[in-house]
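REQUEST
  id: r-88c1
  op: predict_structure
  target: Serine protease
  payload:
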Amino acid sequence: MRHTLIRRAAIAVGVSALVLPFAASAAQAAPTRQAVSGSTPAWATPANRAGNPSSSQRVDVQVFLKLRNAAGAERFANQVSTPGSKQYGKYLTAKQFNARYAPTADNIRTVRNFLRQQGLTVSGVGQGNRYVEASGTVAELNKAFGADLHTYSYRGHKLRAPGKQATLPANVGNLVLSVNGLAQTGPLRTPFHHKVVSNSSTAKTRSAAPSAAPAPAQCSNFWGEHNQTMPQAYGRTEFPTYICGYGTDQLQTAYGVKKAIATGTNGAGTTIAIVDAYASATMKADADKYAVDNGQGHYAKGQYSEKVFKPFDMQDECGGEDGWNGEEAIDVEAAHAMAPGATIKYVGAKNCDTGLDAALNWIIQNHAANIVSDSWGNLGEDIPASAVAAEHTIFVQAAAEGIGMYFSSGDNGDEVTAGNTPSAQPDFPASDPFVTAVGGTSLAVGSDNSYGFETGWGSTRAVVDYTQDPAAYSQAPPGEFYGGAGGGTSTLFDQPAYQKGVVPASLSQQYGGAPARVVPDVAALADPYTGMAVGRTIDGEYTLETWGGTSLACPLFAGIQADASQGRSTPIGFANPLMYQLKAGAFRDVAPQRTPVAVATPSGSSLVTFDRDSSLFTAPGYDNVTGVGSPNGTSYLAAAAGGSHGGHGGHGGGHHRHH
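RESPONSE
  id: r-88c1
  status: 200
  body:
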């Protein structure tokens, strides 16, 4: 039970309450030192301990400093983001924000001098004085931070983390928010993409008297183009085959933005930043070929550019470049598909850990984009609370500058069903109240590219056993959970004001106590079985693959936001306070279908049932799979561009109750 136990350790970060599990008491710290609260992850327990890292192993850390007047920074970020506020749309530049709220040069000097006195190598300072980069051996870090670093077994990884809260001398500790890098969380942060799995290799087809498998069918280019005969389920034996991969024209038309794009509302004048780890050497050429093949023509000169942080590192921990290169292709091509007039700025981090924080900080310090699409995240919220607090300050500054941060809600439903967390929880950073969490749907597009229907993305698979006569499902449909949009009730954040009156109490108070933040906010196509065709160079050859995941939903929605931003006098910025107030017709309410919807694999090896997302579920109105729904074409564009409101009953804002 999360709230009754964990929230006792909450501290206020600005006016947002962040839970800091395992907070150290003053008695635990040496008299001359103070704890960096929340620096130990929940999984760093004696039961999980698996040894010690080598004392000579070198580790990179980011020492994040506190904002000055963090509460004031959050109040300002809320005011400029909330329609009806006198400050709405009156954003600060990065220079203005830093002059008011950023750590000072003296603050940096104090921290930097301490690190050097401890024998650590100081390699740089993050723009805006947000953090000091340093490195040292495990032995040096243990001495400098009292970290007591150990190795822990968690989710199949051997991860380094402090066995107790880090401590610092009071004059330094008063300035420090987090020491990122002590806990090795990179392997827990992943891109959120999914590919189709046909199950043809697991279908049972050999027996002395096997049942005849059906003749292979083809995947469908639109909903219902091809069908396959399956054992009876849901009162039927004929099911449409899954989608080969929608193209740009289909998605523009289905989401109702094609005519707007054709008449010039195409995102021109806006910049979408795509943030991932690493960078594909062929991305620019791949993106251009994809655009041409989909009838959008070549990118204009300067329309696509990259900012890549090198040298790349932590590739073993982060799963290597290839997986992230595929993510990059999804993100760039999906965003451009929905906003062909927008400028795309790809920002490649040097790794999937502290490198992503550095990339995000670079964007806000240089105001490199109006819209930032982030199709990655942690599996759940079980990361050091001090690291959550540090990233939270980046999102606050983004909102103050009028930069919208969009994060995929995740691909594993409530995470506990997939075995990733001990209890149900959404993924961070999507759960942060200053970002827009994009959930996922399954989308049916008709033969004329029209919108058919959407369900919540939650795919389950029932494999057919052809050793029986007649053939039967090995497990009765819907079968086993394959993947679904992340969401649920946060274990870290209180309910933001914009969700009041919109999110049902059954969700916001799922664990009792005060209402909490619920994820996601909005949704778009994510199901790989109704996915998007994505092009990239693999082993020297340009190849089309079908991809899904909330990695797809996030850039699709970011592209639509770019279109909506084009007609505004000021950027949309942090969008949630606006979107929760929009007229009801701006979003399509994604609710359960009257009868179960399922698709067959072309081989007939398995049946995939939609809208079965772990313990999460769609419902009329707001739900924890699709939020307030998916954007409703020109109705959404007009409402977002004009900032009209009055339908959902939200109150805007985003402040949180003190504890």
